[in-house]
Amino acid sequence: MDVGNAIRLCRKRRGVSQTDVAMRADCSVSYLSMLENNKRDPTLSMITKIAEALHVPVGALFVMASEEKELGNIDSRLAGRLQRAAMSSILSANDAGAVRG
C-alpha cells in the first residue's frame, strides 16, 4: 500500500501546498513530506485528518493507495474501475472548488 503517493497525488490534483494540508491536518510540513515520501507510516487518525484536509473520502484514499495484490480476489478490471472512480471523484470535487477558498 502506497498511502504516501496517494496523499501526494490527491494534494497535487487539488492544487494545494504541503503547508496548507499540514496546517489543516494539524501536523508539521516535514511530517507530511515524510509521509508522502514513504519515510513514515501514518496512523489511521492522521490519514483521516489528511483526507479531511484534502476533502477526500478516506476510502477513496485507501483505494488509490492499494496495489493489485492487496485488493484480494477483486477482479483486476474492477480494481482499475475503483481506482479510476476514486480519482474521478477527486477531480470533480476539485472542479467544484471543494478545497480552495
UniProtKB/TrEMBL annotation:
Residues 7-61 form the HTH cro/C1-type domain. The keyword Zinc-finger does not apply. CDD domains: HTH_XRE. Coiled coil: none annotated. InterPro entries: Cro/C1-type_HTH, Lambda_DNA-bd_dom_sf, TransReg_Diox_bact_type. Keywords: DNA-binding. Pfam families: HTH_3. PANTHER family: HTH-TYPE TRANSCRIPTIONAL REGULATOR, METHYLPHOSPHONATE SYNTHASE. This is Helix-turn-helix domain-containing protein.
